[in-house]
Amino acid sequence: MRRIALAVALALSVPLVEGGAAMAESPTAPVQKPQVKDPASALLMARLQDRRIEATGERTEATTSWANPDRRISVTDESPAALRNPPIAKLAAALR
After folding, report:
1. Cα→Cα distances 39→28, 53, 54, 58, 68, Å
2. Whole-angstrom Cα distance, residue 12 to residue 90?
3. Distance between terminal CA atoms of the chain?
4. pLDDT digit string (tens) for 21-46?
């Protein structure tokens, strides 16, 4: 039984060969991020991959929309005004 398991493990670990060349990926190949345009697809991918996914169709000059694995959409505001005057600074100024 051990020999069969070993033979199966070895057979599965051998890369597929096409035309005499191994089809192994280069270790320096860049990892590509998924391109998801609509928020519904981004939510599904975020749920399946358990990580946040950008909804590129919702991107503007100042904001980026992200689908989170917990079924929420978050929007980050990267406009110059938002970076100069973060909400906490506005709150602190209002409390003075």
Report:
1. 31, 9, 8, 8, 10
2. 60
3. 77
4. 445 555 665 666 667 888 999 999 99
Joined tokens for residue 94: 């209002």
Stated pTM of the model: 0.50
CB 45 within 8 A of CB 35: no
Residue ranges in 17-62 assigned as alpha helix (H)? 39-49
Burial readout 4-29 (b: 16 or more C-beta within 10 A, e: otherwise): eeeeeeeeeeeeeeeeeeeeeeeeee
Q: Provide CB contacts within 8 A for 79, sequence distance 6+.
A: 61, 62, 63
